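Give me the fold.
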Amino acid sequence: MKNNAGSGAIYGLGVIGALVYFLQHATTFLAGVIGIIKAIFWPGVILYKVLEFLKM
């Protein structure tokens, strides 16, 4: 069995970093909730764009 713990850790750090960024810039409760949702999906979107750029 292959263990992919390293990629999970990198994704987790991306989520935490995005969460801190979006919550620091939130001015309302709704902006904070939207920031949490964005933080969950943001690393996946960035990875998709990078792979699309590299044409993999």
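Helices lie at 5-24, 29-54.
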